[in-house]
Amino acid sequence: MIIKSKIIDVHGMTADESRKRLMKEIEKAPHGMEKIIVIHGCNNGTAIRDTIRNKLKSKRILEITPTFSNDGETTIYLKKF
Question: Is the entire prediction scored with pTM above 0.85?
Answer without folding.
Answer: yes
